[in-house]
Amino acid sequence: MNTNTSFLLNGHAVDLAGADPTQSLLRWLKSRQQHGTKEGCGDGDCGACTVAMIETDAAGRSHYRAVNSCLLPMGALPGREIVTVEGLAEGERLHPAQQMMIDGAGSQCGYCTPGFVMSLFVGTHDGDLSDHCIEGNLCRCTGYRPIRDAAKRLAALPIIEDRFGATLQQPRTALSSARVGDFHNPTTVAEALALKQQHHDAIWIAGATDLGVNLSRGQTVAPSFIALDRIAELQRIEIGDDAARIGAGVSLSRIEHELAGQFPLLDDMLPWFAAKQIKNRATFGGSLGSASPIGDLAPILLALGGDVHLAGPNGLRDLPIDGYFLDYRKTQRHPDELIVAVTLPKPHDLVTASYKIAKRQTDDISIVAASYAIRLDGERRVQHVRLAYGGIAVIPKRAVSTEALLLGQVLGDALVERARAALVEEFTPLSDHRADAGYRRALAGNLFVKFVAEKLA
Ligand SMILES: Cc1cc2nc3c(=O)[nH]c(=O)nc-3n(C[C@H](O)[C@H](O)[C@H](O)COP(=O)(O)OP(=O)(O)OC[C@H]3O[C@@H](n4cnc5c(N)ncnc54)[C@H](O)[C@@H]3O)c2cc1C
Ligand code: FES
Ligand code: FES
Fold first, then answer.
1. What is the pLDDT of residues 81-108, one digit of tens each?
2. Pocket-forming residues, ligand 3, beta carbon under 6 Å
3. CA distance 276 to 63
4. Measured between alpha carbons, how far is 297 from 143 in angstroms, rounded to an integer?
5. Structural domain 1-172, CATH architecture
6. CB–CB of 452/416 below 8 Å?
7. CATH topology for 236-455?
8. Where exactly does CATH 3.10.20.30 map onto the chain?
């Protein structure tokens, strides 16, 4: 493994020897007097710290991706290429993303501006200057209209052929294995598992959108880390006639894009799952790895009856998602196993939908997430039903009693009302700062009523 590591910052090699691998790129930039990149929340919520990172896909094409530098550990950087707001201008000539913000009066106090500029910069290269491009950036004073105007002006410019486009065209080899202190970056599953045998107290880290929050807050997370974000085996999506196998390390942005239209449950949920900067790094493996009771992806897997594929020192294991979650953040996965993929069965003739209820419509953690899959026969008799929830128990869960109540019955108003009432009674959620238990129970029932009204009327 390569210990003499470096990364490219605005085209210049930076040696990582001696760097604290758990320090965020944002804090490191500040320690190097690079103050252009701002810190707002330090939690991945505001986008003030946005930088661009180059990612190369399986076909060898390279792309800029907007990521939150507050969540990006230095240990994950060997071999990577980062562009910050300081790297955009050429001498006195501003990048069009900067110039359009000035021309459109898109900045007042300016604190959020570098983050917006970096998101717009990425948008000019990936061709998306819609609202999605800046959905992960908050501004407290300008108001969004001038900023959106700046994006529109940018989109109206002829294609920008600049040195950044030329950089993307350069051939790249896959990232190699590397280590920064106790932060290991293997490139194969076998290498990752071998490292885990040597470092029993190490933990897996993928996109770091969960763990990065703890690191950003200065919490001690683990003595060492084994990063999964440069393992090609975990980066594959295989789409068959009856199922899609999604590598545990595939980013949610890729899932949203590459599986669009094939899984309505994903199409319904992913637009409301965090913002672009988070989705560019967050993974399915990380969502199941954290086993959060309010994660938005587990209900989808439960509703479709998917599988989780694990690799460990004793080989591979395939587990059905039913029974995978055991207790609060406890699953059937042993600590020395890693999730390599999940399989999502195609819904085919099922009627499906996902719903997410949060305090804020966008970019917020769920109060309750629900994913439903149902099939009715010609007489509206329920032939198949799976009703899955997050936020209603210590684990993501199916409403098995209500499913039993529905199965074989004709779905009319009376049955829907009985199912609603049963769903309210089926779970014993906790009250917390997001919502009390009664509200969560009411949502469990009401979301089913909404599903029937919207999809099965
Ligand atoms: C601002 C913000 C908004 C968010 N919004 C949402 C949201 O709307 N909905 C939602 O559900 N979540 C949300 N999250 C949480 C987070 O983004 C997701 O849980 C994400 O899927 C985690 O993936 P990751 O790759 O970043 O995980 P990491 O942070 O890298 O890891 C998370 C956990 O999983 C383990 N792990 C990672 N990969 C594997 C693997 N392959 N095998 C075994 N264990 C593994 C790690 O050890 C760790 O315990 C949000 C987070 C932030 C910061
Ligand atoms: S500082 Fe707010 S997202 Fe990073
Ligand atoms: S210009 Fe002040 S926060 Fe956006």
1. 999 999 999 999 999 999 999 999 999 9
2. 107-113, 139-142
3. 14
4. 32
5. Roll (3.10)
6. yes
7. Enolase-like; domain 1 (3.30.390)
8. 1-172
In one letter, which amino acid is 10? N
With a Cβ cut-off of 6 Å, ligand 1 is lined by 43-45, 203-211, 213, 228, 248, 273-274, 278, 281-283, 285-287, 289-290, 295-297, 338-339, 365
Q: Are 150 and 100 in contact (CB under 8 A)?
A: yes
Q: Give CB contacts under 8 A, 24+ apart, made by 235-244.
A: 235/58, 236/58, 236/341, 241/346, 242/345, 242/346, 242/348, 243/343, 243/344, 243/345, 243/346, 244/343, 244/344, 244/346
SS3 345: strand
Residue intervals of the chain classified under CATH 3.30.390.50 are: 236-455
The predicted-structure confidence for 424-437, as pLDDT tens digits, reads as follows 999 989 888 888 99
Residue 7 Cα to ligand 1 middle (Å): 24
- Quick check: 19 and 74 in contact, CB under 8 A? yes
Cβ(307) – ligand 2 distance below 6 Å: no
**354 - beta bridge partners?**
371
Beta strands in 228-306 (DSSP E): 237-239, 243-247
Ligand 3 atom closest to 106 (CA): 1
pLDDT in the model for residue 158: 86
Q: Are 322 and 376 in contact (CB under 8 A)?
A: no
d(CA 157, CA 160): 7
Token code pair at residue 393: 């128990």
* Residue showing tokens 């330090």: 42
- 56 DSSP β-pair partners: 62
Helix, strand, coil share (%) of the chain residues, nearest 5 = 35, 25, 40
Which of 28, 41, 112, 276 to mutate to test ligand 2, by most ligand atoms within 8 A of the CB atom?
A: 41
Contact assessment for residue 223 and residue 198, using Cβ atoms and an 8 Å cutoff: no
Ligand closest to the CA atom of residue 114: 3
- pLDDT, tens digit (0-9, with 9 covering 90-100), for 9-38: 999 999 999 999 999 999 999 999 999 999
Q: Can you spell out the DSSP letters for 412-439?
A: -HHHHHHHHHHHHHH--PPP-SS--HHH
pLDDT at position 160 is: 76
For tokens 């000019």, what's the residue? 124
